[in-house]
Amino acid sequence: MSDIPISVLVTTKNEEDNIARCLSALRDFAQIIVIDSHSDDRTCDISQEFNAETILYQWDGKYPKKRQWCLDTLDIHHDWVFWVDADEVVTEACVQEIRALFQAQRSEAGFFVKGQYVWEGTVLRHGLCNNKLALINRKKIAFPIVDDLDIDGMGEIEGHYQPVRQAGFEGDVVGQVTVPLLHYAYEDDAGWSARHERYAHWEAEMTKRELWPEDPVLWRQMVKKHLRTSVLRPYVVFLYSYIVKMGFLDGVKGYRFALSRKHYCDAIYRKLR
Questions:
Q1: Tally of helices (H runs) and strands (E runs) in the chain
Q2: For range 66-77, the mean pLDDT
Q3: pTM of whole model > 0.85?
């Protein structure tokens, strides 16, 4: 079976606990590049064991940040790029859907890809998923400059906003991959809480300064715009994850996950105030 004509880019720093699981699921793609920020663990060694191209990256404190630097600088063999984080695993069903999509030339600018959370060792079948514009045509989509260099929380990597369509491609369709990948975002309470405290500070400052780029999907942009500063956001997020998306069917872990999303939004609102 031929390789899927997509270049997978995996950005890493100290991911030795995750990288093997991530790379082992990517064998069907034509090119795999690991872009590592000088890890001091075995991330690069493990990447090379999987025959992934391994590039060392040193941020200069300016734009472009890491992902756009990759698009601008690396020898990427294909127009289509799939961003996969080291703590994500592209399931076989997701691979097969992408393979079917790319058996013909694609005219879309990109595809959203859902991430199904693995929480406390359990795959959550319900509740809130993330949905990132992670599969993109690099000639049509880029990461914008949002002027957040003096905001702590993200550093070298682009933050939690979607890349945008470049000039001349504003009307190109953005599709959706329906089968999710797995997102092993939770390591323990302390790690999860510390990371999201940093993210909350960054997100609050982005909102205060009105730096958010527009989401490529209009209804998502409208929802985000109205909820970002609302005191109701933590409760809306909890109810959406636990009730609307039926997180209650995942039992106690579904409740704990929905509650964690509420706590994150609580932290953002406190920092906004």
A1: 8, 11
A2: 98
A3: yes
